[in-house]
Design goal:
9 helices, globular, binds NADP nicotinamide-adenine-dinucleotide phosphate
């Protein structure tokens, strides 16, 4: 049996779809009460009750680890560290034979850089468990763009904090799920770090063009310049520490202040395929 954290999220639910298609046993963890009567799920908050995660893992062959995104309206960095510590507490001293974890491009030891700092911390703590771990360093999630679309009457705007022609490594959650599920169920249990992205890199302008052609309308890019990033995040209700952290993270991504992998794992899903699948026909 495999244990899946983040089982109702973008990546986790797709990992579960793959396990289901292969008729493999799994237990998904969720806080969502509507799963109470589903034998394939356990309803609890693993941040508050890591001992329940430990109990489940005594019988698990492998665990898919996803650190749930903390709420940036609070102290994002502190909350992410608390949840990572809970995950590590839940996993340590169990007999689980392998871990597959979602991390990120640009993971950094520097503090206050959003997920880039917290997932670096996760990677380090997972390695200390001495359980064979595959760390999947994910490119920018394509689904981030879906929340950046604002529909107007006959048009739409796409907000970006990045330069219009910056080629950004991106990936669809379905592709991430596939690589994670494949490693989870493979017979190999070795420590590895894998960088994962889509078949091509795309700029915000290309994202706009893909959306425009799908929606059959001409959209506009709304580019937020660096000096306005704090105002942008403040308007979304972020706390002052989260604003600092997200501005640092955005700057690292914008300036590509990390070495891009030369031979990443390449998924199959292009941006056009992703958009076609996820933008429902009502949006046309
Ligand atoms: N966005 C990016 O570009 C990017 C890039 C690289 C890496 N990442 C990383 O990718 C991850 C996000 O993946 P995703 O998009 O699949 O996440 P998601 O869709 O936001 O799902 C989060 C999942 O975590 C679960 N969860 C939240 N709090 C929980 C708790 N206290 N106890 C139990 N379950 C909890 C939620 O389940 P319930 O609500 O059902 O409990 C949900 O299934 C994050 O670790 C992020 O740092 C993101």
């Amino acid at each position: 049996m495999y244990v899946i954290l983040g089982s109702t999220g973008n990546i986790g639910k797709n990992v579960i779809n793959i396990l289901t298609r292969k008729s493999l046993d799994y237990i998904g963890i969720t806080r969502n009460e509507s799963f109470q009567d589903n034998a394939n799920y356990r309803v609890f908050d693993f941040i508050k009750e890591p001992q329940k995660l430990s109990e489940l893992l005594q019988e698990a062959k492998g665990v898919f680890v996803l650190n749930p995104p903390a709420n940036p309206k609070g102290d994002f960095d502190e909350q992410e560290r608390i949840s990572i510590d809970a995950i590590i507490k839940g996993i340590s001293n169990t007999h689980v034979s392998k871990i597959i974890a979602v991390s990120t491009y640009g993971a950094t030891p520097y503090p206050l850089c959003g997920d880039l700092s917290s997932l670096y911390y996760l990677d380090k703590q997972l390695r200390k468990t001495n359980i064979p771990t595959v760390i999947v360093r994910s490119a920018y999630h394509m689904n981030n763009w879906l929340s950046a679309i604002r529909n107007k009457k006959d048009s739409f705007t796409l907000t970006t904090l990045f330069d219009t022609d910056l080629k950004i490594p991106m990936i669809a959650p379905e592709d991430l799920a596939e690589i994670c599920a494949n490693h989870l169920i493979s017979d190999n249990s070795i420590n590895q770090t894998i960088f994962a992205e889509a078949p091509e890199r795309y700029s915000p302008l290309e994202v706009l063009q893909n959306l425009s052609s799908f929606l059959n309308t001409v959209g506009k890019l709304l580019v937020i310049p660096e000096n306005e990033w704090p105002i942008f995040y403040r308007q979304l209700g972020f706390s002052e520490t989260a604003i600092k952290s997200f501005c640092n993270m955005t700057k690292i991504t914008q300036n590509q202040e990390y070495k891009l992998p030369e031979h990443p794992y390449k998924g199959k899903i292009t941006l056009a395929t992703f958009i076609n699948k996820h933008l429902n026909t009502n949006a046309r």
